[in-house]
Amino acid sequence: MAKQMIPPIFYKHKHHWKAQSMLNREFKDMFVAEIISMTGGLLAGTLIAIYIDKILLIPGLFILLPGFLEMRGNISGALAARLGTALDLKKIPAIISKNGDVKQNILATFVEVLIVALSLAAVAYVVTYFIFGSATLLIFWIAIIAALISNFIEVALTTYTTFWLFKKGHDPNDIMGPYVTTTGDIVSVASLLIAITLVIWIA
Question: How confident is the model at residue 1 (pLDDT cuts 50, 70, 90)?
């Protein structure tokens, strides 16, 4: 009779330790991912500071840069979220080579980056031309080349890391957000610097 008077919330749950262990693991995953994200952001900023002279050579590149960095994180983040959710729901197999949905998502990212990169370059060109009276069409080539280079690298990192984390028993959705933000910033800055060097060398 006394046992019946105890509210259900105070009953000992048999599987409480399993839920607690899962929460602790998810917290550790997210905490480590955030630390890596902050470190990567500092590294990307350091690259910009070191090679600022190359960036200043192209009018409008500073206008292009914030949007370009944001584009990389958004597209890679969306890809990681789609793949992670599909893996959790078992809608796709955990084998990249046997997965048609993965190939379609990767193809979609290339279409997206080209459209967004050209749009960002157009905005940077127009703003630079009408406000500062100095603009160059080279910014379009830089945006396209940098977008393709960064997408090749970032899509590979995002896809393989998402599948690897899932196979290791982690939830990719807990980790991939900060991860793609970090790698996206570093890869984007490096890709822009490579694109600037190539365009100036060819021109």
Answer: very low
